[in-house]
Amino acid sequence: MKAEFEKKNDLLSLSYKELSAFVREKLQAPAYRADQIAGWIRKGTSFSEMKNLPGPLRAALEENARLSYPQVEKKYVSALDGTVKFLYRLYDGQMVESVVMKYEHGHSICLSTQAGCRMGCRFCASTIGGRVRNLTAGEILGEILVAERELSLRISNLVLMGIGEPLDNYENVIRFLRLVNEKKGLNIGFRHISLSTCGLVDRIRSLAEEDMPLTLSISLHAADDATRSEIMPINKRYGLDALLSACRDYFDATGRRISFEYTLIAGKNDSLSDARKLARLLKGYFGSRPFHVNLIPVNEVTESGFRQGDRASVRRFCEELSGCGVNATVRRTLGADINASCGQLRHKALHKTGEKLSENAGPESTGVFSMTEDSSN
Ligand code: SAH
Fold it and tell me: Residue 237: which residues within 8 A CB-CB, separation 6 or more?
């Protein structure tokens, strides 16, 4: 059943041009049918709902193509701020999460790019079971289409900050970014998209050459190599010097201001001298170039043992940075009552059933030293 499904053409992963070629060559249908199908796909509809297509064409689609929309396994709506979190089930039983948030200027969605993660950051729930597989471009797109359909709204901003390391699924993520940016796709400008990474330096350098002016968000979390390596294994492969040089070059190539995420962990990286060290480090690399620091009190994932400091210490850290001339804010918490932080629901579901959410071989072990060049695209 699964193998049968995988053999079919994954329509959501196709560009408009590729979809047109498929309609013309494989389905032997006239060109305007591609426009109709693309229109239906944007609305998140199934083949049987594509009412303006003739029956035989719908049957040919069923036979030759598939639509990789995720299924809504659970949907949580925050009573505090209306944030909505979806726990999605993919066609093979894998689970991922997306979160829809309302801002002044529209709706934003936080997207997952992998089922699990192999980066091994010690504070993060997404990485606990390792990475099971990459999502296809169409599956990532499907997270948006299903959320829009479920909530009857349009999403204008994307953040790739859900489960997974987007740059560890580079080709699918780049394809996805081009799909959403297409005029006949969702037509979302690159300036409305942020990509968050723990710091795969080679891929940050490749990204700078893609001609996509995205906002790059770096999960920094520490101001020295010893602390960063302790909480983020990736730092042993790409240290702060390599990372921050790549960030500076990214800004010089794209003109896009870099955003640094800094999770405050009590007693680990949240002292005032840590704040001063962080300011010195970033100003050292960036000089007069603009950048921004986003402070996030750590979400207490049971396994990590990491704890939040009190609110006053978070505020003092932020003020110390500002005092050193660094543009810093404390991230607004949305969906605090629905476990909106990434990985928490998937982890819970995994924990509850006591089994891995997969029919595949087990998840790859966690930690960058088990990384191989992507084989699961
Ligand atoms: N792999 C990417 C994107 C996913 S994580 C990355 O590392 O950036 C999204 C953000 O949430 C990252 O900044 C990550 O460091 C942060 N994060 C993960 N677990 C967290 C936790 N328990 N508390 C606070 N922030 C966390």
Answer: 368, 369
